[in-house]
Amino acid sequence: MSGFHQNAVLGCTASDLEHVREIVTRAGTSFARGMKILPPDRRYGMYAVYAFCREVDDIADGDVQVPDRAAALAEWHTRIARLYEGETRDALDRVLHATIQRYGLRQVDFDAVIDGMAMDAGAPIVAPDEATLDLYCDRVASAVGRLSVRVFGDKSEAADRVAYHLGRALQTTNILRDLQEDAERGRLYLPQELLERFRVPQDPEEALYAQGLNPLAHVLAARAQDHFREAKKAMAQCDHVAMRPARMMAASYLCILKVLLRRGWRHPEKAVRVNKGVRLLHTLWAYVR
Prior knowledge:
It is a single chain. The protein is mostly helical. α3 (40-61) runs parallel beside α6 (107-121), α4 runs antiparallel to α6 (107-121) and α8 runs parallel beside α13 (244-263). It has 14 helices and no strands. It is globular, with a radius of gyration of 19 Å.
């Protein structure tokens, strides 16, 4: 964190900022590197949002041991409510509260993320109907987007449309990429209506090798492409600089979707290999354009 006065970042102490950064670093994703394009206040604001998401996601997936996952997630509702009343109890609370105050983040969006994680914390999601799947995508992806665009620097209705469409595009791409991994957890995030239309069994393992899976997945991929296009249209109405991280995320995930479309879903166990150089070039182009 050299090059700027640490205590000036969001008005937080260096130790609190470091705690939040460590949560992000421990997750082992490329998120921390991607957020380096942001100025320090916004970067640590995004670290705080990500750390919150990481904490509730770990509860939902059982990666942290708690006596009752539903109760632990309900406690996060209480914890978020305390932040909006100005009460903080630890380092993450303090950086989250500073981020909420600085960028006008909405409590309803935090609550939506928690509710999305609660959907995963219960019985495995298997063949939800279209409305339930869309609600799930809104909670676990688009709600995160609504928090993020504000930290990026745009609170407009167009920015919320970016979050709506890009969140659904990214989550649908994740679903199409992770069919095998989800089946191993007893999950099947494919809509019941499409499963019936293409005669795909609702059993997660059996669905992987059904003849109808490939055309079904192409329908969902086309929906993801539509959401990417609508997100791009909405970005054009937003602050150009603020949308840089969103453009980069879209470019990176579009590379994944294109590889999936080339591979198809006749052998969903086959690893998805994205050329890192090509993906990097697309991401960099999204940054500079």
